[in-house]
Design a protein that fits this description.
A hairpin with a 2-residue loop joins strand 4 and strand 5. A six-stranded antiparallel beta sheet has the order 1-2-4-5-6-3, covered by helices on one side. The model has no long low-confidence stretch (mean pLDDT about 95). With about 170 residues, it is mainly beta. The structure holds tetradecanoyl-COA. The site of tetradecanoyl-COA has 20 residues, from helix 1, strand 3 and strand 6.
C-alpha cells in the first residue's frame, strides 16, 4: 500500500508531548468524544516520535458474534487511533482509506491495546499503521493500515456544520 514516493515526516515541536492525551477534536465524536451518547471514548496518548497508543475496554454493547467484538467497532477504533496520530504533525485529517487484518477473535470484557505509527507522507497524504493486542505485544489480534488526507477544517465541514450535534459543553471541532 505504501507508495514509492513516500517521504519521511517530522513531528511538530508543538505537538502534544509523549505520555499526554492528544486533545479531543470534538466532545460529541463517536470515537473520542467524552459527551457522545454512544461512543468508544478512546483516549489517544502521544508516544515518542511519530507513535501513539490507546486502550479500549470491549463492552457488551460492542458485541458482534456471540461473546466477541463486532468487526466494525474494531475498525472504528483503529480509525480513531490512527486518525488522531497526524495531530503529531499538527495536521487535521480525514480518512481516505482503511484496511484491517483481523487475526483473532477479541472477547467481550478484554482490553484492546493499540500502538499506532505514522509511516510517512506525500503532499496531503499521511500513511499510518497500527497493531492491536490484548496485553502481550508479541501476540497481536489485529493490524491496520490507513491513509489520511490533510484538510482545511473550515472548508471541509462548511456545508455540514448546521447539522452538527452539540452538547452543553461543546468545545468545537
Ligand atoms: C474529523 C475532524 C477533523 C479533526 C481532527 C482530528 C482528529 C481526528 C480523529 C478522527 C478519526 C476519524 C476520522 C474519520 O473517520 S473521517 C470520516 C471518514 N472520511 C471521510 O468522510 C472522507 C471523505 N472523503 C473526502 O472528503 C475527500 O475524498 C478527501 C478530503 C479525502 C479528498 O478530497 P480532496 O478533493 O480534498 O483531495 P483529492 O481528491 O485531490 O485527494 C488528495 C490526495 O489524496 C488521494 N486520495 C484521496 N482519497 C483516496 C483514497 N481513498 N485512496 C487513495 N488515495 C486517495 C488523492 O489521490 C490525492 O493524491 P495525490 O494526487 O496528492 O497523489
Amino acid at each position: 500500500m505504501l507508495p514509492a514516493d513516500i517521504e519521511p515526516v517530522i513531528r511538530d515541536p508543538k505537538a502534544t508531548p509523549p505520555g499526554h492525551r492528544i486533545d479531543l477534536h470534538h466532545s460529541m465524536c463517536f470515537g473520542c468524544g467524552s459527551e457522545a451518547p454512544v461512543g468508544l471514548r478512546i483516549e489517544v496518548i502521544a508516544g515518542e516520535g511519530l507513535t501513539v497508543t490507546a486502550a479500549m475496554k470491549v463492552e457488551d454493547w460492542m458485541q458482534g458474534g456471540p461473546g466477541v467484538i463486532h468487526g466494525g467497532v474494531l475498525s472504528a477504533a483503529f480509525d480513531e487511533v490512527m486518525g488522531t496520530s497526524p495531530l503529531l504533525l499538527r495536521k487535521p485529517v480525514v480518512t481516505g482509506h482503511l484496511e484491517i487484518d483481523y487475526a483473532k477473535p477479541i472477547p467481550l470484557g478484554s482490553t484492546v491495546h493499540f500502538t499506532g505509527e505514522i509511516l510517512g507522507g506525500v503532499r496531503r497524504k499521511v500513511y499510518t499503521r497500527c497493531v492491536a493486542h490484548l496485553g502481550d505485544p508479541a501476540n497481536p489480534v489485529a493490524a491496520a493500515h490507513a491513509l489520511f488526507i490533510a484538510i482545511d477544517l473550515e472548508k471541509h465541514f462548511s456545508g455540514y456544520r448546521e447539522r452538527a450535534v452539540h452538547s452543553q459543553h461543546q468545545n468545537g471541532a
